Amino acid sequence: MNGFALKELGKKSRSGLVTTGSGMLVTPFFMPDATRAAVRGASSSDVDHSGIEALVVNTYHLMLQPGETLIRKAGGIHQFMDWQKPVLSDSGGYQVYSLIHRNPEMGKITEDGAEFKSVFDGSKYLLTPERSIQIQFDLGVDMMVCLDDPRPNDVSELEAAEAVERTIRWAARCKDEYVKQVAMRGLSEETRPLLFGVVQGGMFVRLREHCAQSLTEIGFGGYGFGGRHIDNDGNFLEEIVAKTAAALPNERLRFALGIGTPSDIVRCYRLGWDMFDCVIPTREGRHGRLFVWKSGPLDVLGSFYATMNINNEQYKEDFSPVDATCDCELCTCFTRAYLKHLFRVADPLAGRLASLHNLRFYARLMERLRQDG
Questions:
Q1: What local confidence, expressed as pLDDT, does residue 12 receive?
Q2: Within 143-237, where are the H helices?
Q3: Lesser CB count within 10 Å: N end or C end of the chain?
Q4: Active site residue: 90, 138, 274, 323, which one?
Q5: 302: DSSP letter
């Protein structure tokens, strides 16, 4: 049966097993963003060898290019991108809202769904809760996320409350469509994907708790933390993150969407969150910024690691590995001086090696969390 089994519940963290149609996952786990069916600059084999166990793709981007119909014809997302481990699809709600928020002429949010224009050719789309679920089923993912109505943290309590109520109504519609699709496609408990509801509410604990309770009453395989986990000054919203986790049922997965930095992952894990995704390791890698282990225990201040900018001149004649403790391709085969050279001459190998190093760092971070808690 697909789902989550909580194995250990400690004072600071949880551990458990997730069963999906594409294999089992041990919490905590991190998913790099393969937004458009690819982890940028790396093959699926590269990512697999880094120790990563699951990926995230994006409904909004894939519905535009290449389209869910083509992916379905290819045999589903696993076959299309040659990745046989678990895949989660984000609903696309955050991307649509960001598009419209930046340029209101590109669309609007209505009770029915999100109306928007394609950034490629201006064609019009309507992404409803039902349509988002249908597309995610066509992608053939193992875990999927309800369409929600995200808002910035600096909105008024009234606007945040309106977004929460719409998120709850859309979640109920997503659940209804999910049940229909499972029946229509003849899926069993072993083959149906897990469905996540997303808790919104911005900076308001009361709204977060109300949203969590309402989503729990609808019933989902897991629940996500929606919106930003930091304020506009970059301060970690510990009370919001902690109380949102506490408002969710222990026996269900908790997904900290878009989180984040190594220190924020440690902090969120110890506040009760199980799974994480973010563009940080690969985006930073492509710009020459690499994570390096330091001695000492994992802490929420991040003293257990350092960030190296390989573009700095000090590495021009540094023939040591980026991280002597790391077993990735970069650290076992090449030097800091060589990587700096690759970035200087803009060779694509630079971004690939650096990204895979950072993914290996994140995979090792998950291993450390499982061991140390």
A1: 64
A2: 157-184, 205-218
A3: N
A4: 90
A5: -
Rounded Cα distance between 50 and 357, Å, is 8
Place 101 in a pLDDT band, splitting at 50, 70 and 90: confident
19 φ/ψ angles, rounded to the nearest 5 degrees = -105, 125
- Residue 209, classified by CB atoms within 10 Å of its CB into exposed (0-12), middle (13-18) or buried (19+), is middle
Going by C-alpha positions, the residue among 54, 31, 10, 24 that lies closest to residue 272 is 10
The DSSP line for 85-140 is S-EEEE-SHHHHHHHHHH-GGGEEE-SS-EEEE-TTT--EEEE-HHHHHHHHHHHT
Beta strands per DSSP E along the chain: 3-9, 14-20, 23-26, 29-32, 55-58, 87-90, 107-109, 114-117, 124-127, 143-145, 194-199, 222-225, 253-256, 275-278, 289-293, 305-309
Q: Mean pLDDT across the stretch 350-355?
A: 98
User: How far, in Å, CA of 285 to CA of 279, rounded?
Assistant: 10
pTM, 2 dp: 0.96
The SS3 call for residue 198 is strand
Average pLDDT, the chain: 95
CA 265 to chain centroid, in Å, comes to: 12
**Annotated catalytic residue 299:** no
Name the residue among 146, 165, 140, 129 with its Cα closest to residue 62: 140
Angle value at C-alpha 30, between 25 and 32, nearest 5 degrees: 120
Please confirm, yes or no, whether 149 is among the known catalytic residues.
Answer: no
Q: What is the pLDDT of residues 22-50, one digit of tens each?
A: 999 999 999 999 999 999 999 999 999 99
Exactly one of 138, 142, 149, 277 is catalytic; which is it? 277
Q: Which domains does the chain have, with CATH numbers?
A: 3-278 (3.20.20.105), 286-372 (no CATH)
Unique residue bearing structure tokens 């330091």: 294
- The Cα 4–Cα 18 span in angstroms is 4
Determine how β-strand 194-199 pairs with β-strand 143-145: parallel
193: closest CA among 271, 140, 250, 264? Answer: 140
- Cα separation, 157 vs 365, in Å, equals 36
